[in-house]
Amino acid sequence: MRSTSPVLGRVEGRTLSPATVPRRGDRENWGSEMAVVLITGCSSGFGLEAALAFAERGDVTVATMRNLAKADALRERAGTAGVDVDIVQLDVNDEASVASAVAGVIERHGTVDVLVNNAGVGSRGAVETMSMESAQHLMDTNLWGPIRCIRAVLPAMRAQGSGVIVNVSSLASRVPGTAYSSMYGASKSAINAVSEALATEVEPFGIRVVSIEPGFFDTAIGDNNLDRDREFEGPYAKDEAWIQSFFDAGVGGGASPSIVADVIVEAATDASTPLHTTVGDDADMYLGLLAQVDGFEGWMDAVIPIVEATVGPRPAPDSPEA
Description:
two-stranded antiparallel ribbon, Rossmann fold
């Protein structure tokens, strides 16, 4: 369920009014006409469900993923639904791969009306001990990956005077930083800042930008965590495992990612969608809580009991070695 909280859509104390996008053929919100939709990260989760949702509308749907060996689930679901999905290899970390994929879409389908930047990864670790390699790879995927795709599609969108860019961010971008997820939160906060700046830059060209910010949903984010196989060790081991167990419980008990897919479609088709759009009852709850507390200290006083009620008391660190 999408929140109707009055804080949504506000940037630095003002409300961004999304542009009413002039569509080709002067169509409003697409109507019965098809749009060309390019989605990244479609092997599972939000991307897979969004590809099916757009295809079921009759839109020309280009579903991309880094590894086409993971396309079987999407092919099977599309076949069962009786819809056509154009599955294309695209690695958001590779500029040449992005350019080639976008050029191919424009050559086959004429344009790109909607870009959904969904591809992303997670990582975990304390700032002191995290893998710098994982941290850099995460930022390259979650921040620079969407930017590469945005830069590739904008010339076509500007030329036709319309377009929608949907960046899949996270509730993590809207609340204070979470221990052991600093790089993930930083990447999502950064893509929000990019979304806000981009929205102002491209609005005169009839292009809208929306940042979708989901809470916990039942996705494969754990499988896409760059540090999923790393043991909990070192001075932060107990605390990190405690926080990770809370995340695992949240994802495991999360609602269907198809809910987020429906909001992505709505964002692309409804010009009144706020730039910042959260998804999920838990997201609404945490944002409401944030509005009531006093700064970071108040936030920590409020959320630690929530974590403890879910996975038990916070463990004390081991005594430092002599």
